[in-house]
Structures are given as C-alpha cells and as structure tokens.
C-alpha cells in the first residue's frame, strides 16, 4: 500500500473518531442541558410553593395579631378595605385554610 493511501486512510479514520466524539459530546451536552432545565423548573416550582406557604402564614399571623390588638396601625390599614373590613387573606391573595 502506498504511503499516500495509508496517510489518507489514517486522516479519514481520525476525522471519523473526532466526529464520533463530537456527536457523543453533543448528545451528553443536550442531556445535561435538558437536566438543567428540569432542575431549574423544579426549583421554580418549589420556590413558588414556599412563597405561597409563607404568604398564608403571614396572613394568618396578621389576623391573629389583629385579634389580639397587636398589629401595628399601618398594617391594619393595609389589610382593611374601604368598607372597613379587615381581611389579610384577600390582601395576601391566599385562601383561608
């Protein structure tokens, strides 16, 4: 076999291996990016659940403090509508348990 033919076969073989490695890396990269997106979506979901839980706790605490006359006047004003009804749940946009 001539030197030129052997050299071209080696060059083709090396390119083919690089292509396989590149395809494998891209496949792994795609998989990692998909996993990252799933994790970020889950983090967002858990964060929103935590925010909802804290808002409910805050509304309940404001209601309890008002009943004990322990809620500062400015906060009472925030939770009181024009008709004079105190409703921390409505203001915090949460449902009563």
Low-confidence stretches: none
Largest sheet: none
The domain count comes to 1
Number of helices: 3
Q: What number is the mean pLDDT?
A: 84
Number-wise, the strands total 0
Q: What portion of the residues fall into strands of 2 or more residues?
A: under 5%
Give the oligomeric state: single chain
Coarse structural class:
mainly alpha
Tell me what the structure shows.
It is a single chain. The protein has 97 residues and is an all-alpha fold. The protein has one domain. The protein is built from three helices and no strands. The chain has helices at residues 3-67, 73-79, 88-91. The chain is rod-shaped, with a radius of gyration of 32 Å. The protein starts with a helix and ends in a 6-residue tail after the last helix. 4% of the residues are buried. The mean pLDDT is 84.
What would you say about this model in short?
The protein is an all-alpha fold and 97 residues long. The protein is built from three helices and no strands.
Topology:
Blueprint: H1 3-67, H2 73-79, H3 88-91
Give me some keywords for this one.
mainly alpha, 3 helices
């Amino acid at each position: 076999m001539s030197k030129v033919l052997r050299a071209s076969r080696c060059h083709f073989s090396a390119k083919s291996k690089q292509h396989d490695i590149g395809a494998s890396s891209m496949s792994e990269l795609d998989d990692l990016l998909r996993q990252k997106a799933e994790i970020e979506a889950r983090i967002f979901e858990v964060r929103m659940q935590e925010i909802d839980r804290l808002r409910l706790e805050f509304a309940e605490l404001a209601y309890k403090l008002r009943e004990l006359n322990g809620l500062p006047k400015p906060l009472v004003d925030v939770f009181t509508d024009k008709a004079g009804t105190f409703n921390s749940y409505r203001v915090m946009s949460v449902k009563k348990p």
